[in-house]
Write a structure and sequence with these properties.
Helix content is 38%, strand content 15%. The chain contains 17 helices and twelve strands. Helix 15 packs antiparallel against helix 16. Bound molecules: adenosine-5'-triphosphate (ATP). It is an enzyme of class 3 (hydrolase). Keywords: ATP-binding, Hydrolase, Nucleotide-binding, Transport. InterPro entries: AAA+_ATPase, ABC_transp_ATP-bind, ABC_transporter-like_ATP-bd, ABC_transporter-like_CS, Oligopep_ABC_C, P-loop_NTPase.
């Protein structure tokens, strides 16, 4: 962890260099945690009743084949929008959830094979701090009992020794022993998170998953809690997986960061390098969407990361980010501007998802498909009305004609023919092939890092130069 929040000292450059050296040194050792192809699916429509009714069960692919290492003493960040699978990754890795597939090694042992004493040892060594300290603390217990509970469960020492340890822990996290007999509701948010941290440290763990540990706190309190976590990491040789959707927290606190999108890791590397030269279009878009101070930059932010994360029940084929990507790759032989291509891809998505209302097309609902197909003579007017509604810009030739042909198929509600017409012209490698995480060897050596994007490695002809669209 390398907090460089304003509170953490004056020699920021020297501190950063020392932190970088220390991070490199740590990575030369074996990882403490090794995650390989971890998968966690939740199943819907999976009850006995569903089976009797013949409902197909549906997989929610929360985590879909992630691999990464966490080295002793480092802080690895896991960042991504809400719903990308960060918490599920953290919980499955700690075996608070059973995986669907894959493997997690902790100190060389597969945690999903552990049983008996070995499992108890793992549960001692690996702990979690949750986002919302209030809901994770039992309101009927005093904070002394809350912090002591893990010691009681694991039968550590005598009652006196446990009480003594609780006092030490409370002091260590900045609380007073006078507060031992108080209840969680008597504390502020920041203090409650300190209690959660004290409890997580009770069994002297080596590894903590910090799941949005400061998201529920005021900004001023966030920095204090992050600094506390930084101090504790040094003092107790802790290794952290820090889950956060907040890039500024990640930037200030982590040594390396893994960027997650819709159940997958799309880029992973040292924080400073990744923030300096983000490679995956999703990483770039995330960085671009951080609120900026200047008006110019705020204007630009609106261009990025529009729409929601698609459902993990039916993720897009190929690259999962392609439905929102501002650098999606057109077919090799197609001369087309990226903005036009993006608009055509959005239109295709809507047609493929039958996500266009044909109930009332044109002025005053001139065409209503529920009354039957549009008469042939009216098709041009029907197409013009749809174009007006669906497209933000005039398309250059020949795209205008191709779109008109596709929309004309909707005059007979033939969604498949409309989709096929556009697919035949515009299908992208991004939808055909899944990009694996692979190191981008063509970049400068210090920027070698795994990225899952067809723009890297053997670049397909016609690909947008990834450095161009950020300007
Ligand atoms: N028990 C569950 N049953 C079904 N779906 C679930 C379950 N838990 C999580 N999910 C789904 O899995 C996906 C990933 O959720 P997860 O909480 O891991 O994401 P996240 O990136 O941590 O987001 P957030 O920051 O909002 O918690 C989401 O679509 C979520 O709705």
């Amino acid at each position: 962890m390398s907090t460089d929040t304003p509170q953490s000292g004056t020699n920021a450059d020297t501190d950063a260099d020392t932190d970088d050296d220390a991070a490199v040194e740590r990575r030369s050792h074996e990882p403490l945690v090794r995650v390989r192809n971890l998968q966690k699916y939740f199943w819907e429509n999976d009850s006995l009743l569903d089976r009797l009714l013949g409902n197909d069960r549906v997989a929610v692919r929360a985590v879909d084949g992630v691999s990464f290492d966490i080295y002793e003493g480092e802080t690895l960040g896991l960042v991504g929008e809400s719903g990308c699978g960060k918490s599920t990754t953290g919980e499955t890795l700690l075996r608070l959830q059973e995986p669907t597939d894959g493997r997690v090694e902790f100190e060389g042992q597969n945690v999903y094979d552990l049983a008996g004493e070995a499992l108890t040892e793992f549960r001692t060594d690996a702990q979690v701090v949750f986002q919302d300290p209030f809901s994770s603390l039992d309101p009927r217990m005093t904070i002394g009992d809350i912090v002591q509970q893990p010691l009681d469960i694991h039968d550590v020492g005598t009652e006196d020794e446990r009480r003594e340890r609780v006092r030490d822990l409370l002091e260590r996290v900045g609380l007073s022993v006078d507060q031992l007999d108080r209840y969680p509701h008597e504390f502020s948010g920041g203090q409650r998170q300190r209690i959660g941290i004290a409890r997580a440290l009770a069994l002297e763990p080596d590894f903590l998953v910090l799941d949005e540990p400061t998201s529920a706190l005021d900004v001023s309190v966030q920095a204090q809690v992050l600094n506390l976590l930084d101090d504790l990491q040094d003092e107790f040789d802790l290794t952290y997986l820090l889950i956060s959707h907040d890039l500024s927290v990640i930037r200030h606190v982590c040594d390396r960061v893994a960027v997650m999108y819709l159940g997958e890791i799309v880029e992973i590397g040292p924080v400073a390098d990744l923030f300096e030269v983000p490679k995956h279009p999703y990483t770039k878009a995330l960085l671009e969407s951080v609120p900026r101070a200047s008006t110019d930059e705020r204007e630009r932010d609106r261009e990025t990361l529009t729409g929601d994360v698609p459902s993990p029940r039916d993720p897009p084929s190929g690259c999962r980010f392609r439905t929102r990507c501002p650098a999606v790759i057109p077919p090799e032989d197609l001369e087309i501007e990226q903005e036009t291509y993006r608009e055509l891809m959005d239109l295709r998505q809507r047609i493929e998802g039958e996500d266009i209302s044909l109930e009332s097309v044109g002025e005053d609902g001139q065409f209503a498909l529920e009354d039957g197909p549009v008469p042939e003579a009216d098709v041009p007017a029907f197409v013009a009305a749809l174009k007006e509604r669906l497209l933000d810009r005039d398309l250059p030739s020949p795209h205008d004609e191709i779109v008109e042909e596709a929309l004309a198929e909707l005059a007979t509600s033939d969604w498949d023919a409309a989709a096929e017409r556009l697919r035949a012209e515009y299908e992208s490698v991004c939808e055909r092939a899944h990009p694996d995480l692979r190191t981008d060897e063509q970049s400068a050596p210090e920027q070698h890092r795994p990225v899952a994007c067809h723009l890297y490695g053997e670049s397909p002809p016609n690909a947008v130069d990834p450095s161009s669209w950020r300007e």
